[in-house]
Write a structure and sequence with these properties.
Elements (H helix, E strand, L loop, with lengths): L2 H41 L12 E7 L1 E23 L5 E6 L6 E2 L4 E5 L2 H36 L5 H33 L2 E3 L4 E3 L9 E2 L8 E16 L3 H9 L5 E5 L6 E15 L4 E8 L11 E18 L4 E3 L2 E7 L5 E5 L1 E6 L2 E6 L6 E5 L10 E3 L16
Parallel strand pairs: 1-20
Antiparallel strand pairs: 1-19, 2-9, 2-13, 3-5, 3-8, 4-7, 5-6, 7-9, 9-12, 10-11, 10-13, 11-12, 13-18, 14-15, 15-16, 17-18
Helix pairs in contact: 2-3
């Protein structure tokens, strides 16, 4: 091997040793730095990251002790007090219509006119026949008077007098029949003018002027509904029957309010008018009918409304929001906050409910505070943090993966 090659090999060995020293020194320095950092961090207290060990934020409400108005909610239908299908009692051509569709009409108001010409002719004929029979009667009575005079003078036989008397009686009967025919013709003539039988609102007309109308046909000329007052018909569960019957028997007015579909606006206030005479066995409900004055026309026939019936008032009742009540294997319960700000499970016996409040028969004395929001994270003995009403809602617990 030449001297030049030997020198190159020595230089390579020298650089290799230097590189190993540099790498070893760097590793040593990093080990020292890592040890110092570990020592500092190990001396610091560990931070608790588990949200489950922290107090649970909750919103509470006090238990109320006051009069509880029990309301029964139902869906009702507005029913007119009277609905009349106005029909013609005689046949003829409709000459004139005197009402407008949707117009308010009064009892006795003229609605329509049917051509009276043929009925006037029939009346004239009946009156003519009556006058003819009256003339015959006058003549027969004159003859009867003459026969009676001659009979007294023993100039004629009694049989002639009796025959003339029979003729007079016959003519009197015909005149009575004529009088009835005249009255019938007048009645038929009066039917050509159609009047409103009730106060109410007229619907759409089903016949126009110029059409031929048949007597008592299936299609009415117009329908009139009476809506002052108006009824609302609805059904309640049969377990309310006893209380309602007792209230009505005692003369008490059972208040009923009608609300719109969204239950945001009260439309009218009335009272129970009557109970049905039997319970519907298929649904277990009892039909009721409430009457409303409806002078402002807030209720419309066949309209669906939400009904609230004031069934009874429970004096000095202990009540809580229905949303605070929980249901478990041991029954119904609520979470009560004790003086140590910890949650306690309190079993309840519940009564009637109304407008989001429910009566507590046993389990609370009226001085406690129950948890309304944040219940999903609570357990018996869990420490809580009470959130004021003006603060944001309690946060929802996120999963560990989040």
């Amino acid at each position: 091997m030449s001297n030049q090659n030997i020198d190159v090999a020595k230089k390579r060995n020298s650089w290799g040793r230097k590189l190993k020293y540099i790498i070893g020194f760097s590793v040593f320095i990093w080990l020292i730095i890592g040890g110092i950092y570990w020592k500092k961090t190990s001396n610091q207290p560990k931070e608790e990251y588990s949200q489950w060990s922290k107090p649970v934020p909750v919103r509470v409400v006090p238990v109320q002790r006051s009069n509880l108005d029990v309301e029964i909610k139902a869906i009702g239908t507005v029913v007119p007090v009277h609905t009349v299908n106005v029909q013609s009692q005689v046949s003829g051509v409709l000459q004139q219509v005197y009402f407008k569709e949707g117009q308010w009409v009064e009892k006795g108001q003229l609605l329509a006119q049917i051509d009276p010409a043929s009925f006037k002719v029939a009346l004239a004929q009946a009156e003519g026949a009556r006058q003819q029979n009256l003339a015959q009667l006058n003549n027969a009575e004159t003859e009867l008077a003459r026969y009676q005079l001659l009979f007294k003078q023993d100039s004629i036989a009694k049989q002639q007098v009796e025959q003339q008397q029979a003729l007079v009686n016959q003519l009197k009967g015909q005149i009575q029949s004529n009088r009835a025919q005249v009255d019938a013709a007048k009645l038929q003539l009066s039917y050509t003018r159609i009047y409103s039988p009730i106060d109410g609102r007229a619907g759409f007309k089903q016949k126009d002027a110029g059409n031929l109308i048949q007597a008592n046909e299936s299609t009415a000329l117009v329908t009139i509904t009476q809506v002052h007052p108006v009824y609302v018909q609805f059904a309640v569960a049969e377990n309310h029957l006893t209380g309602l019957r007792e209230a009505l028997k005692s003369g008490q007015q059972v208040k009923v309010s009608a609300w719109d579909k969204a239950e945001q606006q009260q439309l009218a206030v009335g009272q129970v008018q009557a109970l049905d005479n039997q319970i519907d066995v298929s649904t277990g409900t009892l039909k009721l009918k409430a009457v409303f004055d409806n002078r402002d026309d807030s209720l419309f026939p066949n309209q669906f409304v939400n009904v609230r019936l004031s069934a009874q008032t429970i004096q000095n009742a202990v009540s809580i929001p229905s949303d605070a009540v929980q249901h478990g294997a041991k029954g119904t319960y609520v979470y009560v906050i004790n003086k140590d700000h910890k949650a306690e499970i309190r079993s309840l016996k519940l009564g009637l409910s109304s407008n989001g409040q429910i009566e507590v028969l046993a389990g609370l004395n009226g001085t406690e505070k129950v948890v309304l929001e944040g219940i999903d994270r609570l357990s018996d003995g869990k420490e809580v943090q009470i959130i004021a009403d003006d603060q944001p809602h309690p946060p929802v617990m996120e999963s560990a993966a989040g």
